[in-house]
Amino acid sequence: MKLLALAWKDLRRQFRSGLLLVMMLGAPLLLTGLLDLAFSSPAGTPEIATVTLAVADLETPPAGAPVAAGRTLVAALSTPALAPLLKVVPVDGADAARAMVARGGAGAALVIPADFTAAMLGEVPSASAALTTDPARPLGAGVAQDIVRRALDSLSESALAARLTLQRVDGPAAGSLATQAAMRVALSAPRGATGGGVVVEGPEGSSPSFVARMAAQVMGAMMIFFVFFTGAYGASSLLREQEEGTLPRLYTTPTGAATVLAGKFLGTAVTLAVQIAVLVSASALIFGIRWGHPLPALLASAALIVAASGFGVLLLAFVRTSRQTGPMFGVVLTVTGMVGGLMTSTFTNLPAGLALASRFTPQGWAMAAWRLCLDGRGVSAMAVPLAVTAAIGVACLAVGVPLMRRRFAQGVPS
Amino acid sequence: MKLLAIAGKDLRQVLRDRRAFIFLLLMPLAFTLFFGLAIPTTGAGSHDARLQLGLLDADGSALSTQLRRALADSGGVRPEPLDAVQAGYVDDLVRRGDYAGVLRIPAGWGAALAGGAPEPVTLVVDRSTPAGLATAQAVDAAVERFLGAQRVANAVAGATSNSAAAGGRPAPDVAAVLDAWRAPPLTLATHLAGAGETPAGAAAEGPYDQASPGMIVQFAIYGLILSAMVLVIERKQRALARLATTPTPRAVILAGHALAMLAVVLAQVLVLEAFGQWALGVNYLASPVATAALTLALCVWASSLGMLLGAFARSEEQVVAWSLVAMFVLSGLGGAWFPLEVTSATFRRFAHAMPTAWAMDGFRNVLLRGAGLAQTLQPVLVLLAFAAAFLVLAVGRLARRPD
């Protein structure tokens, strides 16, 4: 009963602290909400903003040219199909186009050179259009570059057909045959109609929305990050009681050190369980996160509780006063959380070193277990990360608890 | 003099706290280094940011080998042949994110393409992810080049097949057209706007151009914890009310506290900028005057936020909690964690209600566009307007309720 009374007292104290409630519940939900808001869209995929493309067409087609390549290019870039991605704005002169980008008024500027049509007709070997992009908007720059390059390639195909025809045939008919070949390319069946191309398949078992998956991963990571903080804060309650003088007073009663420590541990474990339960339920309601099957989620929670409380107990061995707990816990838990991949849970293509380093932290293993849980995997698939997470917690407790017993058994600083 | 004495007292109180070093410098440096290392960019000093593309080439023809080379040269993906075991769980590899996509080239693909009846390749990719989209785009562009070559070969053959002028010379095949593509008639030269119109790719956004200013903005807010706490302690201990009974004008007292906050945050930001400039290669000196104006405006705004926190918080615990919430909301919404360009339209509109978004705009103008003072004037003025509003609120509160 004393054990329960001790745990209950700690629980009440923790859930009355505004700061702790912010750290335990407010911060993880707030961070997930912010990222969800940042990337959510009606389609559930990342939105790409329309890029304004300032176009300066400087070409002067040769007299009697059958085509004005610059105008054809501008027309190809201005089709309704591209309108959601690209907004073409004609401007007078290359300087005006580039100045528009420099001012931030356009994401990219395209300058079509004077000899553009001449190059297409083979009168000059080649001509180069210049695309100036805004370095502060690399995504838009990439979109503009891809679209312009494809449109240019289309024109180049016609020109190449004409050139290769001229290499194959001689005589007075050569010119008309070259034009014919170029026209054949220009008028060839639309992409996809002739077969070939790329058939895109989604991987089996993937969730429908990237944003929903991202929110789930961020929520999982933030939950682990702040659960470790709560675990450390719970362990440090012994230190606070010692400094406030309530621990020595407690030892004047017929209560053993083992009961006190067990009560503290139980209080922390229940706090962590409540924190996880609230975060999982709230995020399921607010963000629609599906946390996987109940049993794997339960086991992942249990492993996380053992790891977080064990790590907190171990950290307590390295602080002498409660004033030191803030900086010490803040630095250690932030660094191990970062290395454990909690701040980069949604990043793809991380450097191999960082991915490997996450395996040396309890948070990295806990994240690995929760990731599989979010993927809807069963207990057998999660066995290794679950076991390692719990084992790290047990190892921390095995080292930390004897140190705590020695230090706090008398209730006064030793 | 009294103003300086009050500011000096606050400064000593802040700097005596050993946590100052951790909150003001150690944590922002650690976060900057980490995010600079983790965020994939194409800039100098970053790791190979190309997306991993698994390749299952059942064709093994010269054309499929050429396709693989074209993909590798695209700069967007890094094709890696998969072994027989990996071929058995392609979906898992993509779903887990081990590979951004897996490309299957069927047997006979090269022959079919050369014969004028191209077969499709299959790409397993999650197109709802940015990495998946980019991979699909890179693969599509490369394959399209091959289909284009086939279209050209067909067109040349079609136009000249019945012509005696061909003199029996064979029509170019797909490989010959691809060869001709090495010197295309129309090319695209790309440049980055800004100083010197740098060629694209040579000096694209560096790994720290987002992380360094982002963490400066974030930790300018976080660092306020200690300064605001000094004010709260003075209020709680009624030292502020007692000071108000002396002949020192209330305005001087409050200005002294604000000056101390400004000094702390300015020192912090300058150290972090210097570290960014000389250790991380972030070019804050691209436009020294613009950077100076922006830095000062940011620090004035941050200290006004500190005054606001110090005026309204009732306990040290509240200072910590509110600082954390302010840090998360203002830096998250303001684009300190990721460029606003990658966020949704709604988010972008919302973001510019935050002073931090303007600070980030200003820094990105200087660092990436090489902008001068004229182009950073708007962010500077907006930050100062926010600062004025916050100071009015803080001073109003402290004048009414100093304790």
Short description:
The complex is a heterodimer of chains A (414) and B (403). Chain A has 414 residues and is an alpha/beta fold.
Notes on the protein architecture:
The complex is a heterodimer of chains A (414) and B (403). Chain A is an alpha/beta fold and 414 residues long. Chain A has 2 domains: 2-40 and 209-408, no CATH class; 51-184, 3-Layer(aba) Sandwich (D-Maltodextrin-Binding Protein, domain 2). Chain A is built from 16 helices and 5 strands. Chain A has helices spanning 2-16, 18-39, 69-77, 94-102, 116-120, 138-168, 174-186, 210-235, 237-244, 246-251, 257-287, 294-316, 322-339, 352-357, 362-374, 379-408; strands at 51-57, 86-90, 108-112, 127-133, 198-201. Chain A has a 4-stranded mixed sheet with strand order 2-1-3-4, with helices on both faces. The mean pLDDT of chain A is 85. In chain B, 52% of the residues are buried. Chain B is elongated and about 110 Å long. Chain B is built from 17 helices and 5 strands. In chain B, α9 runs antiparallel to α12. The model of chain B is unreliable at 42-47 and 199-203 (pLDDT under 50). With 403 residues, chain B is an alpha/beta fold. The longest helix of chain B has 31 residues, at 130-160. Chain B has a 4-stranded mixed sheet with strand order 2-1-3-4. Chain B folds into 2 domains: 2-39 and 207-400, no CATH class; 51-180, abc type-2 transporter like fold, CATH 3.40.1710. Chain B has helices spanning 2-16, 19-38, 62-73, 84-87, 90-95, 109-114, 130-160, 174-180, 208-222, 224-236, 239-244, 250-279, 288-312, 316-333, 345-351, 355-369, 373-400, and strands spanning 51-57, 77-81, 101-105, 121-125, 186-192. At the A-B interface, α2, α4, α5, β4 and α6 of A face α2, α5, β4, α7 and α8 of B.
